[in-house]
Amino acid sequence: MTSCSSATKQGLPGGPAGIPVLGAALKWKGPETNLEWTKEYGPIYSVRIGPNQLVYLNTIELVEEYMEKKGAAFLGRPEGPAAIANGLLFGQGKKWRENRNAFMRAMWRASINEPYEAIINNEVDFLVSQFSDHLGSPLEIDTLLLPALSSRLVALLLGEPVPRDGEEMAVLLQQMRNLEEVDLTSKSTQMFLKVKKFRRPLEAVSGRTIPDMFKMSEAMQGLLRGWISRRRAALAKNGGQPNPNALLDQLLTSEEYANKSEEFDKELMQSVMDLFNGGVTSSLSALEFAFLYLMHHPEVQAKVKTEIDQVVAGGHGITWANREQFPYTQATLIEVLRLGSVTPSSLPHVTTEDVVIDEQYEIPQDVFVMASIYSMHRDSRFYKKPELFQPERHINAEGKVVRPRSYRPFGVGERLCVGYNLAEIELFLFMARLVSTFRFRAEDPTQPPPFDTQMRVVRRLLPFACVLEHWQNT
Ligand code: HEM
């Protein structure tokens, strides 16, 4: 048991009351509700949502002390939806750790690799040409960003892109679009995941479509089997020498997966599926927030553009290595990830043993513990007027970028996002290049689209359109 106690212990912390079966589910309208509960109940509360008892840690102090410093007791996860093996997102124990070690090493190598930037730049070049076809008229940019973000992950895995108009991309995009519809917080989805045959009746009762995640997983497995055997054949042809630009080669030759049983192929497949599940809509959502904030704040957009132009006219030649020359652009992204909070409660961590928090609250094993990123990102002790979009708050007196202590867009502790490094690089390159090329504005500049959101796999803005213009025409 992880503990430290002298005060009287009192079981789970208090929190919002609920009703039988549903708990407080009907009161929860999104992460805004968690913020209200934080204001009402303080740094820690517990709440039952359906069958699950959730404990929310709402301050960076509690998160650091328990989920980070004493993190081992909080490393569990709930069962993964339609999982074929442990994988990365929902695995736990020894297999998860092996998967994670292999992926962290391979991803780290990829992130310091110039070819990854080349992959991103290739996607951005294509986006620029596509955006240019829509100048002056309203465009829902997510329709073009989703293929770009899917394609960059395939190129990272295989060391080269697959044809954008080929069958493989068509299958992948279909699955990524289906995934966009998945709402893991919905009760019907959770029931369907427990009992497959309930899907149709649940759809009839709820009046909502429930994406068939089992079918999606099968389609992804088909694709991945093909890619894994393609890279195995290439490896055999090269005398076992991995292509340094192909993440799959790095993984297939790693001690965790090389010469292992079929079980490990399943682990590899689930983990790669998790890269797509965890790494496409999250980055997409972050970029959508970025462009919507810039539409609301044309003065910020102009400042980013000016900063870039002063170093590299037209945005060509921006690299992650020279990011220090673009502090305002970096600060803008930090502010986007802070307020956007695309994963507002991170992913659930589950206690692997009984723990005591704050010397008084007893949390039994198998309880969901949530890091309340949304509340932490709006903590007025760390952010003056937290609701305001102010990139300059992340630049210190010396003009250097500072990441606030209460800032955890990529999660907490040892379960920190596997792709955070890649995500930071690509968000920076996508935003910098696109803003240096186009001005993003609302159709009616006096009334930009609202920040209305919905919870899907991550927090998403409702679809919105923007108008793109070349700067010289504005
Ligand atoms: C803006 C972009 C992204 C955000 C905000 C984000 C956020 C997160 C968060 C909050 C977690 C949970 C951490 C925790 O449990 O405390 C997570 C986990 C994960 N993310 Fe990301 N992520 C992003 C991009 C990516 C990308 C690009 C990839 C891969 C290509 C990725 C792959 C994963 C995986 C595999 C996990 C599971 C880690 C584990 O449980 O061990 N993510 N991410």
Give a structural overview.
The chain has helices at residues 31-41, 60-69, 93-111, 114-132, 142-158, 167-180, 187-194, 199-206, 213-237, 247-252, 262-279, 281-296, 298-311, 327-340, 373-376, 420-437, and strands at 44-49, 52-57, 349-350, 355-357, 361-363, 368-371, 438-441, 453-455, 459-461, 467-470. The chain is globular. Strand 8 (453-455) and strand 9 (459-461) form a beta hairpin. Among the domains are: 1-78 and 344-376, no CATH class; 281-341 and 381-456 and 463-474, Cytochrome p450, CATH 1.10.630.10. Mean pLDDT is 92; it is low at 1-6. By secondary structure, the protein is of the alpha+beta class. It starts with 30 loop residues before the first helix and ends with a strand. The chain has 16 helices and 10 strands. Strands 1-2-6-3 form a 4-stranded mixed beta sheet. Strands 4-5 form a two-stranded antiparallel ribbon. A two-stranded antiparallel ribbon has the order 7-10. The chain binds protoporphyrin IX containing FE. Protoporphyrin IX containing FE binds next to helix 11, helix 12 and helix 16. The site of protoporphyrin IX containing FE has 27 residues, from helix 11, helix 12 and helix 16.
